[in-house]
Amino acid sequence: MVTLSTTPEKFLEDDLKDLEIRSQGCLYQYLEKKKLLDGSTIFYPRVIGLRSQDNPTHWRWGYNWEERADGAWKGRSIGSIPPGAVPMIRTLQQQGAIREDIIAFIKRAKTKKTSPKLDVCKNFDNTKLKPVLPDDAPQAVVLFAGGGGIEAGMVEAGIRPVIAVEFDPTKPELSRAIAQTHHRNFSEYGCRIIQLTVQEVAQLKFIGFPRRPDYLHASPVCANFSQAHTAKAGIALETVDDLTAALAVTEAIRQLQPRVFTLENVPRYQSSQSFAIILQTLAQEGYLVDYSVVNMDKFGLPQARRRLVLIAVKGVRVLLPTTSKPIGWYEAIAHLIPTMPDSQLLPKQQQAVEQFLATGVPTPLLIERVGGRNGLKYKPAHLPYNTILRSSFTDHKGCNRNKFADIWLPDGIVKSLSIQGAAVLQGFPDWYEFPSETATAGSVIGYSVPPSFASQLFMSIQSILQGASV
Hints:
Layout: H1 19-24, E1 26-30, E2 32-35, E3 41-44, E4 60-69, E5 72-78, H2 86-94, H3 99-110, E6 139-143, H4 149-156, E7 160-165, H5 172-186, E8 192-194, H6 198-203, E9 215-218, H7 240-256, E10 260-265, H8 273-284, E11 287-295, E12 306-314, H9 329-333, H10 347-357, E13 365-368, E14 378-380, E15 405-408, E16 414-416, H11 419-425, H12 438-447, H13 451-469
Parallel strand pairs: 6-7, 6-9, 7-8, 9-10
Antiparallel strand pairs: 1-4, 2-3, 4-5, 10-12, 11-12, 13-14, 13-15, 15-16
Helix pairs in contact: 2-13, 4-13, 7-8
């Protein structure tokens, strides 16, 4: 068990003379001890498995700084920082934010309703408590909403989604079921789900939409640009529907004039004519643009997921947030594994296990049940999982797969990865309510922008915009 000092080491150095360093402040982690009636000592937060230095939920957090008063340095601190706020605080520090802005952000994070007991074994990061947004929270419009992964991230970042457009005419029943899931999760925030295509809404001139919203987000349908839908590597099969969708997005930008426009898609979308059309419109409307292909496992998502992410802001250039150390899939869902149903490996899965054991030390493996072009895929415990797709949960006819991935443990136990486990690997908060049907729930997960990444993205944007308006 690691024991940490509650005082950052840098504040104990007598020869630290630089005024800026002394006053800037330091984020630090520590453990809280508690002696039980039986005489034993336990540490909080409680953690299943090894405690990770880079997992914010494995520690208590505080922020220390020093102020000059009456000719002497006086130590100041804020404790009980929510672990979910730690990545953003680190980002603020790396971006050179002043101490006052960091302290103001911490105080805002601490005003959110918290559970009475912070314990990693039971709701370790308070995610079952749905965020409460103030009446004056920034407003957002979302196009191609799906089940609301981007909206979940927005809500976690203190942004209120007010209108979401979601309808896929090629899968009308599934689209209606996803829209119902969206309504169940976001209607309490006043979010209205519009079951029309984005093209249809554009033809109606976006009637009823707020003008000049704080945020406008679009995740255009990406199937035609994915690896599975290309005739040759690197060549996307762009269609008329893709182009009309892009034109509808540009109409939304022109008519709504959001302060911030964001876009997410598969990496190959950046080589499309659709993306070029959107970039041209953003330039014409005076937006400063930054975009790149992001490896979301570098933002704490326990999944290897590469996506194109764009941020466009009027008058301010906003860069993507800084990355953090990847998290292995096992660390993310270890607490859920005992609750998952028992399973048996398929012959090909058993072969994969034997091949791994021939070259490596026994460790938990997460193994897909259906192989892709290169056969079955498995991931050892310390690595992020493979990209989660809608097709993982359904067969070629669109029917449910009873099992889509299995967890092999070194003691021989095999568990079937649950929807709840897949949702955690996709970065969904515990408060999000999934439908009971596997195909619908899997579609929501596979289609969605990971909410944990989205929350970091929008918290970073919010912080930079607040700094620019001072």
